[in-house]
Design goal:
Layout lengths: L2 H15 L4 H28 L13 E4 L9 E5 L21 H10 L19 H12 L3 E11 L9 H6 L2 E2 L4 E10 L5 E10 L3 E2 L5 H23 L3 E4 L1
Parallel strand pairs: 1-8, 2-3
Antiparallel strand pairs: 3-5, 4-7, 5-6
């Protein structure tokens, strides 16, 4: 590794630290973020009342939906139904989509100056949020027009590796019972908490790996499946949605 490559993380940290403090950003923008959070809470109440399965009248959206957050563009975000209980914390979700925690990250930055606590890693202390990071989160939250709610109804965690045959061992292939995540993707207007669209999705993970994967790699593989399934469902079944990779 070159000396420059070694120093890059330290340089990035210095650049971030040289910007405004998170306290300064919160004083300037906190009131606007609280308005976003109040509207998101209203969406959460609407989700709790939504019938299953949801069947709204289909309409045309104008949604630009990033798969990762905070993004530099887009007017929509994914959120898990489990996250509405307390925005300062994440709901318990396995194989969480990288872009599925924007609202909680904004809330936690505004209220605790940290990332939200994640029950999937209960012993991990949420790290502090720098001012520039908070500003990027708030930019993304203030652009929101739509919330795409992931309401999971079927979940199967990837299983343990099955005993491999001698031929499989020689090829260094490992077979698993693949993971499964399925449910509804509900689209709400952030301004009115109106249900604007709904579709189903189903994601699976691989059942065979060339090398023995770790638990984290098994989960990451299912995350990739979830991202692909949500992108396909949103763009194929909901009019006027563009998913940003």
């Amino acid at each position: 590794m070159s000396q420059l490559a070694y120093l890059l993380p330290w340089i990035a940290a210095v650049v971030i630290a040289c910007g405004p403090t998170v306290d300064e950003v919160n004083r300037e923008r906190g009131a606007r973020i609280e308005q976003v959070l109040r509207r998101a809470k209203a969406v959460g109440a609407a989700v709790a009342r939504a019938p299953y399965p949801a069947r709204p009248e289909p309409g045309t959206l104008h949604a630009s939906l990033p798969l990762t957050q905070p993004a530099r563009s887009g007017n929509a975000a994914f959120i898990y139904a489990e996250d509405f209980e307390d925005f300062d914390e994440l709901g318990l979700v396995y194989a969480r989509l990288p872009g599925g925690s924007l609202v909680s990250r904004c809330a936690a930055a505004a209220h605790t100056e940290r990332r939200p606590w994640d029950p999937a890693s209960p012993a991990t202390q949420p790290r502090a949020v720098f001012g520039n990071e908070a500003a990027q989160l708030y930019d993304a939250c203030e652009r929101l027009h739509y919330l795409f709610v992931i309401r999971t109804d079927t979940f199967l965690r990837p299983g343990a590796p099955r005993p491999a045959s001698t031929a499989d061992t020689e090829r260094r292939r490992y077979d698993f019972d693949g993971g499964l995540v399925a449910g509804e993707l509900l689209v709400y207007s952030l301004a009115s908490a109106e249900l604007l669209g709904a579709t189903r999705f189903q994601a699976t993970s691989r059942e065979s790996f060339p090398m023995l994967p770790s638990e984290a790699e098994l989960e990451s593989d299912l995350v990739g499946g979830v991202a692909a399934a949500l992108k396909e469902a949103a763009e194929k079944n909901l009019r006027g949605v563009t998913v940003i990779p």
